[in-house]
Amino acid sequence: MDIGGINLVTLLATLIVASVPILMAALGEMVVEKSGTLNLGVEGMMIMGAVTGFVVAVTTGNPVLGFLGGAAAGAAMAGLFALLTQVLLANQVASGLALTLFGLGLSSLMGQGWNGIRPPLTGDVPLGPLADIPVLGPILFSHDWMVYLSLILVVAIWWFLRATRAGLILRAVGESHEAAHALGYKVRRIRTGAILFGGAMAGMGGAYVSLVRVPQWTDGITSGAGWIALAIVVFASWKPWRVLMGAWLFGGISVLQLNLQAAGSRIPVEYLTMSPYIITILVLVLISSGRGRAMGAPADLGKTFHASH
Amino acid sequence: MTGSDTLLRVEGLTKAYPGVVANSEVGFSLRPGEVHALLGENGAGKSTLVKMIYGLVTPDSGRMVLSGQDFAPDRPATARRAGVAMVFQHFSLFDALTVAENVALGMEAPPPMRDLARRIRETSATYGLPLDPARIVGDLSAGERQRVEIIRCLLQDPKLLIMDEPTSVLTPQEVDILFKTLRKLSAEGTAILYISHKLEEIRTLCDHATILRRGKVVATCVPRDRTARELAELMVGAVLTPPARAATPKGEVMLEVTGLSAPSPIPFGTALKDIRLSVRKGEVLGIAGVAGNGQDELLLALNGELRSAPDALRIGGQPVGDKGPEARRLAGLVSAPEERLGHAAAPDMTLTENALLSGAIRQKLVRHGFIDWTKVRAFANTIIRDFDVRTPGTEVAARALSGGNLQKFVVGRELSQGSEVIVINQPTWGVDAAASAFIRQAILDRAAGGAAVVVISQDLDELLEIADSFAALNEGRLSPPRPVAGLTVEEIGLMMGGAHGMEVAHDAA
Amino acid sequence: MMRLEKRATPSRAWSVATPVLAVLLTMIAGGILFAMLGKDPVAAIRTIFWDPLFNPQFAAYSRPQLLVKAGPLILIAIGLSLGFRAGVWNIGAEGQYVVGALTGAAAGLALYPMESRLIFPLMVIAGALGGLLWAMIPAILRTVFRTNEILVSLLLVYVAQALLSSMALGALRNPQGGGFPGSRNLSQWASSANPELIAGTGMHWGVVAAFIAVIFAYILLQRHMLGFSIRLTGQAPRAARFAGVSPRRLVILCFGISGALAGLAGLFEVTGPAGQISLDFAQGYGFTAIIVAFLGRLNPIGILLAGLLMALTYIGGELAQFMLGVPAAAIQAFQGMLLFFLLAVDILTNYRIRWAREAS
Question: How high is the ipTM of this complex?
Answer without folding.
Answer: 0.87
